[in-house]
Amino acid sequence: MANYKIHPSSIISPDIQVADDVEIGPYCLIQGKGFIGKGTFVEGHVTLGSRHGIIEIGENNHFCPGAVIGGGSSGSFLQR
Length: 80
Prior knowledge:
- It contains no helices and 11 strands.
- It has strands at about 5, 10, 15-20, 25, 30, 35, 40, 45-50, 55, 60-65, 70.
């Protein structure tokens, strides 16, 4: 049985492994492939990774509200 908490409003990629004792707050988006280590706390409105990337978050990290980590290039640019 999993021993972590994910708020029901958050979206987590099925390719992300979540360790025990992780808490993910409301309205978070975690994309890509990878893992979140034990004891990590992700507060509300945090974006981690991208659909094109790999994230590896170690143990006992704390992401504050509104943090955006990752977001690899999609290879397209805005041109005027």
